[in-house]
């Protein structure tokens, strides 16, 4: 998605000895900022990092920042999905409202976060998993305006409406303005 930018883009694989940054924040913004700052300080280049997850209204917006660690860090997504569906079912909530959230932070080479973007894709939780596309909770998330789950939608549809696409669009606009300065 960032390929439209007139920039030389690198990934962490292009650098030697970059350590992971622990996601110790309690919000998506905190975790994205921690990672952007940490990677910028290690690489000495402007760094973009994100944090994302699923928030389910009936569960008090859980699993949220703990989406990847929900039901245990070494638990596969099939088990996480089953646990989440069971928990949603036990609430009796008929609306099953949820949203995917993605926050991206951009840090300068000194580790100062200079821009943060938030993308949200609202929808509902399906009653059972459907589809093999995507990853994570995609088979149980139905974005607003669709009857298919993210797991059933093709990549082009998902890229156009996802939480990550919406945050990326804001990052692209910021970087194009930043370059023009």
Describe what this molecule looks like in 3D.
This protein has 181 residues and is α+β, with helices and mostly antiparallel strands. It has 4 helices and 5 strands. The chain has helices spanning 28-43, 77-91, 155-161, 163-180, and strands spanning 47-56, 62-63, 97-107, 113-125, 141-143. A 5-stranded antiparallel β-sheet has the order 2-1-3-4-5. Helix 3 (155-161) crosses helix 4 (163-180). The two termini are 22 Å apart.
- What's the total count of β strands? 5
Counting helices, strands and paired strands, the structural category is alpha+beta
The SSE order reads HEEHEEEHH
Biggest pleated-sheet summary: 5 strands, antiparallel
Shape: globular
Number of helices: 4
Give the terminus-to-terminus CA distance: 22 Å
Amount of helix = 25-40%
**Percentage of residues in strands:** 15-25%
Low confidence ranges: none
| Rounded radius of gyration (Å) | 17 Å
Q: If strands are numbered along the chain, what order do they take across the biggest sheet? A: 2-1-3-4-5
What's the pLDDT, averaged over the residues?
A: 95
Feature tags:
181 residues, five-stranded antiparallel β-sheet, 5 strands, alpha+beta, 4 helices, globular
Sum this structure up briefly:
The protein is of the alpha+beta class and 181 residues long. The chain has helices at 28-43, 77-91, 155-161, 163-180; strands at 47-56, 62-63, 97-107, 113-125, 141-143. 34% of the residues are buried.
């Amino acid at each position: 998605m960032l390929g439209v930018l007139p920039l030389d883009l690198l990934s962490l694989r292009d650098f030697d000895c970059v350590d992971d940054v622990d996601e110790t924040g309690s919000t998506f913004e905190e975790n994205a900022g921690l990672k952007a700052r940490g990677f910028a300080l290690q690489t000495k280049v402007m760094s973009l990092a994100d944090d994302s997850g699923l928030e389910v209204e009936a569960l008090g917006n859980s699993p949220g920042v703990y989406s990847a660690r929900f039901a245990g860090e070494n638990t596969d997504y099939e088990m996480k999905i089953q646990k989440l569906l069971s928990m949603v079912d036990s609430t009796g909530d008929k609306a099953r409202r949820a949203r995917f959230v993605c926050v991206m932070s951009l840090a300068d080479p000194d580790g100062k976060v200079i821009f943060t973007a938030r993308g949200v894709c609202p929808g509902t939780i399906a009653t059972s998993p459907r589809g093999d596309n995507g990853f994570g909770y995609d088979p149980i998330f139905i974005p607003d305006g669709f009857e298919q789950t993210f797991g059933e939608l093709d990549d082009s549809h998902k890229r156009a409406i996802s939480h990550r696409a919406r945050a990326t669009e804001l990052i692209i606009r910021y970087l194009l303005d930043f370059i023009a300065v």
